[in-house]
Amino acid sequence: MAKKTNAVRLVEQAGIPCREHFYEYDENDLSGIHAAEALGRPAEEVFKTLVARGVKTGINVFCIPVSCELDLKKAAKAAGDKNMELIHVKELLGLTGYIRGGCSPVGMKKKYPTYFDETCQLYDTIAISAGERGHQMILDPMALADLVDAGLEDLTV
């Protein structure tokens, strides 16, 4: 039995029902599409976690379907900023405690403003990183959004 990640422990402590799914990941293909295929779920129901920096607001977290691209103008508007840029992958671990391909909106080093793409409301459950590569949590998106105090916004291109 694999050890529970901090993200999974926090979700369970909050009383949110959660299924874990483990899969083989490829160091050369850390894409969310690969994760969706491994899970056997439509890509619209598998969400990736992106971290961006706003001019005024600093670090923000955006969770969007793996089949989509973050619209930086919409992301900036959601965060109340005029400009938003994705952070460099080398900054990810230091800011969040997570590495590329294993970044979860739950259990980051600091609590950052977080936004979920509004399409998450269309599904009973979504899959999102459990905080390590090859490990996903499947849970109610609205319960997850409440846990991380996320706003629901139109975030994709």
Notes on the structure:
With 157 residues, the chain is α/β, with parallel strands linked by helices. The chain has one domain (6-153): YbaK protein (Alpha-Beta Complex), CATH 3.90.960. It has helices spanning 6-13, 32-39, 72-79, 89-96, 141-147, and strands spanning 18-22, 46-54, 58-65, 84-86, 114-117, 126-132, 135-139, 151-153. The longest helix has 8 residues, at 6-13.
Order of helices and strands: HEHEEHEHEEEHE
Strand content: 25-35%
Number of helices: 5
Mean pLDDT across every amino acid position: 95
Considering the chains and any ligands shown, give keywords for the structure.
alpha/beta; 8 strands; 8-stranded mixed β-sheet; 157 residues; 5 helices; YbaK protein
List the topology elements:
Layout: H1 6-13, E1 18-22, H2 32-39, E2 46-54, E3 58-65, H3 72-79, E4 84-86, H4 89-96, E5 114-117, E6 126-132, E7 135-139, H5 141-147, E8 151-153
Parallel strand pairs: 2-6, 3-5, 5-8
Antiparallel strand pairs: 1-7, 2-3, 2-4, 6-7
Compact overview of the structure:
This protein is α/β, with parallel strands linked by helices. It has one domain: Alpha-Beta Complex (YbaK protein).
